[in-house]
Amino acid sequence: MAVAENASGTSGASGATGSSACSAHSGAPAPALKFSLLAVALAMAMNTVVAHGQIYSDRNAPGNQQPTVLSSANGVPVVNVQTPNTAGVSVNAYRQFDVGANGAILNNARTPTQTQLGGHVQGNPWLATGTARVIVNQVNSPNPSYLRGYVEVAGDRAQVVIANPAGITCSGCGFVNANRVTLTTGSPVVSGIGLEAYRVAGGTVTVDGAGMDASGTEYADIIARAVNINAGIWAQSLKITAGLNTVSADQASITPGVAANGAAPGVAIDVAQLGGMYASHIYLSSTEHGVGVRNAGMIGAAAGDAVVTVDGRLENSGTLSANQTLLARAAEAVVNTGTIGANGATTLTAGALDNRGNLGSAQADTTVSVAGTLDNSGTL
């Protein structure tokens, strides 16, 4: 096995998903089945898209942030991540980070180990002092990253962060052996106490094609100025934050006010008709003033709560639902021609309301607070 500056994935995905998670919505395929379906879809698509990935370390980065990129026996890129700091954060800089249909492996194993994507891999010599708790993959490039396959953590489980200010497109991406996954266009803030936050000045994360499978992770985060969802996202706990923000690593704290890099998007979080979020818990936040959220697809919290906060307009022509409680707040108007509701309590606060669809809880209280005009020709 030769050390190379980059590793190119070849054809076909292999292996299976990591730890299983409960199906995120009724009738949804189990994670292992979704993995197989994604692999088939990606293999079929190889006639029309570039199916191989390219991963290059950034030779202009400090030496202790340059990962070593190898290749497994079956051609899957293997990234020997750099030595973590005392807080367990491994920072890895790239000038290109694209994942092909056969996936990529982040090697967080000190000794030889077996992987699902690449079979047997050697231990990572950069981990002599211990494995990483968080693996930050920082892309320094004017070009967006394309994730068309699964990313597997070899060895000890870790949080996987993929950060590219130029944008990220997930089209059939998924994650194996990661306890948290973060896709962001923000710049990670790392200190001796750990990964602290992300500063977002621009960029878009797009989910399309075969979607995003984060069902094997406890938490899935998308943090960007704008988010476009044109396919399904499967997760346990899903948090999406859009806007010009400094966002804490756990998304518990969101501070607007980062200077913009470019014009404002028309919509901060846009869920198309074929898009969907299928998770136990869903939290959506759009903080850029006057920039709204639009849902024409499915946003469904199958086991818990759904919370949507918008510093602009909320348009729903699809389904926004929760098994427990649903909380929606919009600084401007809520326009509903679809379905908004929960099995538990539904609370909606808006600057104005135009309801031509179904709004309310089937089995609990519905509370609507409107500062301005309320037009209701639907069910409330």
Can you tell me about this structure?
- The protein is mostly beta strands.
- The protein has a domain at 200-380: 3 Solenoid (Pectate Lyase C-like).
- Helix content is 4%, strand content 50%.
- It has 1 helix and 37 strands.
- It has one helix at 31-45; strands spanning 6-8, 54-57, 68-71, 77-80, 89-97, 104-108, 113-115, 119-121, 134-139, 145-147, 150-155, 158-163, 168-170, 173-176, 178-184, 187-191, 194-199, 204-207, 212-224, 226-229, 232-242, 245-248, 254-256, 267-271, 276-279, 281-286, 292-295, 298-301, 306-310, 314-316, 319-322, 326-336, 339-342, 346-355, 358-359, 366-370, 374-376.
- The protein has a 31-stranded mixed sheet that branches. The protein has a 4-stranded antiparallel sheet with strand order 16-17-22-23, with no helix packed on it.
- The longest helix is centred in the first third of the chain and has 15 residues, at 31-45.
- The termini are far apart.
